[in-house]
Amino acid sequence: MFPVEPTHGARLADEFDRASGRYDLLTSLNPGYHDALRDAAKALVLRLPRIDGPLTLWDLGCGSGLSTRALVDAAGVDARIVGVDASDGMLEQARAKDWPAGVDFVHAFAQELPDVAARTLDGPADGAFAAYLMRNVPEEQRDEVVASIAAQVRPGGWIALQDYHVKGSKRAEATWSAVCWGVVTPLALAVRGNPSIYRYLWRSVLENDSRDELHARLERAGLTDISWTTAGGWQRGILHTVHARRPA
Question: Which residues are in the Methyltransferase domain (predicted)?
Answer without folding.
Answer: 59-157
